[in-house]
UniProtKB/TrEMBL annotation:
Record: residues binding Zn(2+): 83, 86, 104, 107
Superkingdom, taxonomy of origin: Bacteria
Function: Transcription factor that acts by binding directly to the RNA polymerase (RNAP). Required for negative regulation of rRNA expression and positive regulation of several amino acid biosynthesis promoters.
Matches recorded under HAMAP family: DksA (MF_00926)
GO annotation terms (biological process): regulation of gene expression
UniProt name for this protein: RNA polymerase-binding transcription factor DksA
Domain DnaK suppressor protein DksA N-terminal intervals: 7-75
Keywords carried by this UniProt record: Cytoplasm, Metal-binding, Zinc, Zinc-finger
Family designation: Belongs to the DksA family.
GO CC, any one term: cytoplasm
Quaternary assembly: Interacts directly with the RNA polymerase.
Name of the encoding gene: dksA
Length: 118
């Protein structure tokens, strides 16, 4: 992949990362406010399940943040856009849709097939 294109992806990834980090910050302060405003036990129960829901979301966000950081590192070392399984270039449409991907569509399809069997 040429340098200019790699920098385009870096900008996309960096923007996603900034947004995720901003959202993560918002969620934490939102949780603190709720705790103060609902002392009633019933509300506390629903607050607990809200919090579990939030934690699940945040777990997914955290993993995505990790993937974005890895993708940025791959841009730095020049391996971005190369399938880590077959070492072919990943199609551009796929990268556009999902810049954090590390597998080309063929390897991804194969991986999902294996997972279904396993
Ligand atoms: Zn591949």
């Amino acid at each position: 992949m040429d340098q200019q294109k790699a920098e385009e992806y870096r900008a996309i990834l960096q923007k996603q990362l900034d947004e995720l980090l901003r959202e993560a910050g918002k969620t934490v302060s939102g949780m603190t406010d709720e705790q103060e405003n609902f002392p009633d036990p019933t509300d506390r129960a629903s607050m607990e399940s809200d919090r579990n829901f939030e934690l699940r979301i945040r777990d997914r966000e955290r993993r995505l943040i990790g993937k974005i950081r890895e993708a940025l590192k791959r841009i730095d070392d020049g391996t971005f856009g190369i399938c880590e399984s077959c070492e072919e270039e990943i199609g551009e449409a796929r990268l556009r849709a999902r810049p954090v991907t590390t597998l080309c569509i063929d390897c991804k399809t194969e991986q999902e097939r294996q997972e279904r069997i396993g």
